[in-house]
What does this fold into?
Amino acid sequence: MDLALLYDVLDVPEDFGPGHLLYAARKQHYTLPYLVLSALAREGAPMSDAARGELARARRRAAHYEAVLERVAAEVPVRPVKGPLLARAYPPDLLRPQGDLDLVTVGEPDLWRAVRVLMADRPRHVGVSVLGAPERHVVVTLSGPAEDPLLDPELRVEVATAALVGDQGAVPIRPAMPADTLTSNLLALAEERFQRPFHPRDAVDLYQLGRSSDLSAGPAPAELVAAAAAYHLAPELLELLAYAGERAPLGALAPLAGDALAAEAEAERARRAAVPAEAPRAAGAGASLAAGAPLYGMPLRRTEAQLAARAGWDRCRVHRFGADEALLLTPVGDYLLVTGELVGQEQYDAALRALDGLAPDGEEA
It folds into this structure.
């Protein structure tokens, strides 16, 4: 990879210069400047003290995430998704844009073991969400200030019991990723389409995967197509390959964007269209839990006494109250389960009253 490729991917005329390239990168994604700055440094371009400082912080950010992964993995079986695995496809002197660290565990007990390791960093915010039924999955997001909180995005680690959460409709939760790294990377990138449109970072990732992957020694295109079909991601992978291929050479991945994947994409679209529409359900937390819809935890309480009382917990607990409300009691705090961002004062006060009736260990006081 060189600067010429980045000019093409970001659609910036090369004669506009690196300032315009960096500006375009910032508009596309908050982590893309890390890659552009490292490419400028690699090619010996003149850089101001401010630019060198931003790049140095970005390198320390990446090293921080690697250290966090190493520390957690030394105590708990976890698997990273995207970030560190994709970074290994990049040359050592190019910084793969990484905003956060995503980890997956097999089951809830290992999730809370990993979270306890991460709590040693004293995160500023610990968010908990649940989704899925009859098997309930948990997602915990821990965040804290970056090295320069005024200039850099917060540090964030997400630990989940589900690797791919689908579209909360026809595409189901898929708890585990394939063992093969290339397959895992492609599926994780394709899954992003359920959250957002593809952007230039995805094209650069595919370019690097296409250059670093030897499909003669790894999964054949037919195996990759089969995996995309099994994970219900053939349409998204086909779209990703088309998007990236318009912006950068696909290299060894080019044969993947063929008739076989197109056929599987068409079959998956037909399968989704045949899935019956979800019947309307009540708006309460209890109904959402039963349906497996995502519920978000609004933080209510976290105390040292509570953490000590729950040291042996390896699962969260749901405490019902009111007409159809629910508290989520976890090893790291208590939350009101909600379906959206806005919570009325009456609902919040009722949650606090319900919580006041519980001891730190979650039992009725």
